[in-house]
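for ur thesis appendix - histidine kinase. copy paste whatever u need, i formatted it the way the template wanted (i think)
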Amino acid sequence: MLNSLSGRFLILTIIFVMLAEVMIFVPSVARYREDFLLNRLERAQIASLALLADDMIDTELEAELLLNAGVFNVVLRRDELRQLVLSSPMPSEVAQTFDLREATALTLIKDAMARLINPEDETIRVIGNPFRDGGLLIEITLDTRELRMAMIDYGLRILVLSAVISIVTASLLFLAVRVLLVKPIKGVVGHMQSYAKAPEDARRIIQPSARVTELRDAEKALQSLQTQLTQALKQKERLAQLGGAVARVSHDLRNILTSAQLFTDRIEMSEDPAVKRMAPKLVNSITRAVSLCESTLAFGRAEEPAPTLTLFNLAQLVSDVLDSERLAIGDFDLSLSVDVPGNLMVRADPEQLYRVVSNLVRNARQAITGTGQPGEINVAAKICDEAWCIDITDTGPGLPPKAVEHLFQPFQGGARKGGSGLGLAIAEELVRGHGGTLTLVNTDETGTAFRIRLPMGGLG
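the 3d part is after this line
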């Protein structure tokens, strides 16, 4: 109970209301004391006026008047003449004098608290203005015992009333908090627990229903989070299934390509000049295909092999990529250009870098041929800031907004219609494995440019 939100709110409410009542209690008691003394002054004035009306009042009647007024002596000043109107024996000397004519609120509060704290009975003198202009000044003496007892009684009644108000107020707030806050919060927690049991079940996603703005915002945020998580889990499951299928296909394809390699030896023995020229490229393509199948199998086991760094001629690798692309271009009006120094040596994994450049060039080629308009693809390389920089630019239509938003994320929007986005995701991962970066430099209706940056660290 005490550890719950509503329980703590109940306790804090009681404490704060009591503190507020205590702050009210002090000036209330001070005001009660002032009213008590003013009442005594008024009663004393009435008694003195009775005596002034009839000078022949006997001693017993005078004592009764003083008793009814609750005072020992009454001094009334009329027309600059100070006159002891009523008097009786005082039990003790006057201990203090209080002038109510110009007393400030702070003075009244201080005197009231002092009287509550002091338990001793004393005789005090009180000075005030006569009521209804009955003179210039009235002065009485009285005992403090009755005053203090009346103040204590009044204070206790105030405290009891404050306690009742605090309990009632706190109870109402307790119920309000339980209905408006605690119950909706428990509902959200219940939805979270239910969703945690089966996050793939879209029926368990919370539907915002709270009327409190803040809670409704929290429910909407939770709904968005659960929706994204459910979609991610479904996508993960599909990817796992796809990975299993790709692994099986790659396994069989690897065996087929391995068999194809056995026939390349006989092809290389041909005397046909065209065959002799194309045979090495065919052998290289089959070797890369076998390597790709093996890498795919490793990727399916989440074991993409680390790059094997070797020093090789980048211009030759780019030339091999573009030669393969020229076969795919055929008669389409698409030019491929190279701006790579012939002596530029790069330390990287040649097979993985081939896949990266090939993916980027193939994407550019597919984007341009998809428009049906002529275009150009350029591959350039240079040394920049202790790194090798390879730029692949094209004059295609640019990447669609969804592809830019989910760049390098598989199955989140390809660069062309029907694309899966796997090419860029694989390329980025391979470059990252080299400690480098693959970045989109720019993309618009005039074309797209990517940059591969491979650090030169470790080069002797």
